[in-house]
Amino acid sequence: MKSYDIKIEEISIGGCDYTIRSLKDRQQFSDNHDISGYQGISPANWSHFGVVWPCGIVLAQLISTLPLKGLRILELGSGLGIASLVASRRGGDITATDHHPLAESFMSENVALNDLPGIKFAHGDWRTPITQLGKFSLIIGSDLLYERDQPSLLSVFIDCHATSDAKIILCDPGRREARRFNRLMIERGFSARTQYLPTQMLMGRSYKGRIMTYERSCQ
Questions:
Q1: Is there a domain that residue 140 lies in?
Q2: Which domain holds residue 71?
Q3: How many domains does the chain have?
Q4: Does residue 46 belong to any structural domain of this protein?
Q5: What confidence tier does 30 reach under pLDDT thresholds 50, 70, 90?
Q6: Is 45 exposed, middle or buried (0-12, 13-18, 19+ CB in 10 A)?
Q7: The CATH number of the domain where 66 resides is what?
Q8: What are the C-alpha distances in Å from 132 to residues 33, 67, 72, 100?
Q9: pLDDT digits 0-9 by tens, 157-206
Q10: Would 5 be classed as within a structural domain?
């Protein structure tokens, strides 16, 4: 039985309005059968998938400006799927992934609320590549590096799913684990570039983050 509260809000991205169904706030929690706990999601992090984060808005805004034609796109840690919604509306071939047990249902609701075609979704964490997905020419994500083991897991996962000429774009709010991730990506043959963003107001809060871009030349 559902034991969490939700809200519906309108968010404008790239000149388009999106209706987003999310958790009411970060205090929501529901894991009666310990499914999340079994998957390694702590009660403190349970709600993270289901709220709108400023970093996620930055990523979605960026996706609204990029040329997407001909690209296979993978969103990591998609949560509510906002960046995937934007990519879908722009005709992108997008696949969303997340390991939270409710992420797919929330994203599906948001797809329906915005009258978009279904978005492909794969459930899984970064400990094991999802080999049946194949490889992608654009891999995106936001605020993915908040735990100590994530840089090594994420760098391996990305390497397994990136084409030989892939571009990876991650929006980061300034997590200190990003430095180690950056080093690991360079060790795997990617060039790295960081764009620091000026302070801006997002979701009623001051936000100052960065866009981390990685590329490797076709071998």
A1: yes
A2: 51-215
A3: 1
A4: no
A5: confident
A6: middle
A7: 3.40.50.150
A8: 29, 26, 14, 19
A9: 999 999 999 999 999 999 999 999 999 999 999 999 999 999 998 888 88
A10: no
